[in-house]
Design a protein that fits this description.
Elements lengths: L4 E3 L4 H6 L3 E3 L2 H10 L7 E5 L5 E9 L4 E9 L8 E7 L3 H13 L4 E6 L12 H19 L6 E2 L3 E2 H9 L4 E5 L13 H4 L1 E6 L7 H9 L3 E3 L8 H16 L3
Parallel strand pairs: 1-3, 6-7, 6-11, 7-8, 7-9, 10-11, 10-12
Antiparallel strand pairs: 2-5, 3-4, 4-5
Helix pairs in contact: 3-4, 3-8
Length: 250
């Protein structure tokens, strides 16, 4: 049976050094005891997003709280040698959630939502914090499932122009998947210099001609991904997988 994993938002190393008894968060308690129905002495893994993880077991619980005993630190790293940023156009909520989840499973490090001309979703200022918390929950759950020990960042949405400006002062290899270009990914070699890549994925309906031109003028490399038109959420999976295979750990 696979040992369940839980992210705990605190410095677990200090708890481990001070004896190793850790009170689970309310969310983790509910999932471990009420959903998974773990019993005393059953094993679980706890991680705090700072790298590595801790083998533990349920020490005690009641209806409202539970505690675990940390047994050992496991110095595991499942991060890719390639640092990647996903600049993802705002798409429909369910598709956005799916794309974020899969990008985390595939090893993305930073997620930057972007507003494009054809973005169908615009988040109101008074709802942004709630939406960011929702996305953060998806990221954490994907890390728990996939075995990652570091939590990817997600930034507040920005316009495409703002994203391009930020990329212009970084050392990233910018890549955008465009059906109108003929360059293939295998012909790009720059990433081997700095091991950081920034992938742009457009919204439903794709980038406009003006946006494509803006990206190409900003030294974002357009690549062809075959003659077929991919959905945005499919392009996320295909693009990250291809980049990881080309320069990462796949």
């Amino acid at each position: 049976m696979k040992i369940p994993r839980f992210y705990q938002d605190e410095d677990i190393s200090q708890v481990f050094e001070e004896g190793g008894e850790l009170a689970l968060s309310v969310k983790n308690h509910r999932h471990a005891i009420q959903v998974l129905r773990l019993k005393v002495e059953e094993k679980l893994i706890i991680f705090d997003g700072k790298g590595g993880e801790y083998l533990a077991y349920i020490k005690a619980f009641d209806k409202r709280k539970s505690s675990v005993q940390l047994v050992s630190f496991i110095d595991s790293s499942r991060e890719s040698t390639l640092t990647t940023t996903l600049n993802l156009a705002m798409i429909k909520p369910d598709k956005m959630d799916f794309a974020i989840q899969k990008s985390v499973e595939l090893g993305i490090n930073i997620i930057q939502p972007i507003y494009c001309e054809r973005s169908v979703i615009k988040i109101k200022a008074n709802r942004l914090q709630k939406k960011m918390e929702h996305w953060q929950g998806i990221i954490i759950a994907a890390c728990e499932q996939s075995g990652r020990t570091k939590i990817p960042e997600i930034n507040d949405p920005v316009t495409l122009a703002e994203c391009l400006q930020k990329d212009s002062i970084s050392n990233n290899l910018g890549i955008v998947m465009l059906p109108t270009v003929k360059t293939e990914l295998k012909n790009l070699n720059d990433c081997e210099q700095h091991q950081t890549a920034s992938l742009y994925i457009g919204p439903e309906g794709g980038f406009t001609d003006i946006e494509e031109q803006q990206m190409l003028e900003s030294n974002i490399n357009g690549i062809c991904f075959g003659p077929r038109i991919l959905r945005a959420e499919t392009a996320v999976i295909a693009g990250i997988t291809a980049i990881q295979q080309r320069w990462g750990d796949c």
